[in-house]
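User: Can you predict the 3D structure of Two component transcriptional regulator, LuxR family? Sequence below.
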Amino acid sequence: MTASAPTRILLADDHALVRRGVRLILDSEPDLTVVAEAGDGAEALALARVHAIDLAVLDVAMPRLTGLQAARELSRRSPATRILLLSMYDNDQYFFEALRAGASGYVLKSVADRDLVEACRAVVREEPFIYPDALTALMREYLQRAARGERLPGSVLSAREAEVVKLIAEGRSSQEIADLLVISVKTVERHRANVLAKLEMRDRTQLTRYAIRAGLIEP
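Assistant: Sure. Here are the predicted structure tokens for Two component transcriptional regulator, LuxR family:
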């Protein structure tokens, strides 16, 4: 990308109306242009393979793969691509998960018209963007953990286990999950058993509640 070229953006959100609104905001700026749109995390990753992009703007909660899962894979596959996550949730957990997934910024949909353009520009400049209301919560979280001598915890589940939990919570059968992830049914069942043991849970209902709290699916 040259100094005069606009930032090429991949936009992913499973709601077409939201995508349209976000695209209007971005395309109205001379230094930003949306070159590809996706309806879920898996489609976003596929499009990232065939489009030259500088920035991925991903919704946190999407079908098949969430924005968090797509961000994790995209940051591994293409470290130079900047990532910005969009969310309707003002939630500390989602924010920290976004950072762990490789995102450089987190924008609330409720104030996207105010913050989104600034966030995109900051992230492209390799500067982190934190929505203003998160600063107090962020400082409080770190200070409390530092006072207790703790570090921020890593994710309890592996990336593959999180994928399986998400699909279970969406009501998919073991065969459907196996087909989607291109693994055997036996492997799906093993992941399910490992997850239940790790989380000390018994059934799909409890896994679904966990998936909502962890931002894998929308409530």
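Residues 76 and 149 are 30 Å apart (CA to CA). The radius of gyration is 18 Å.
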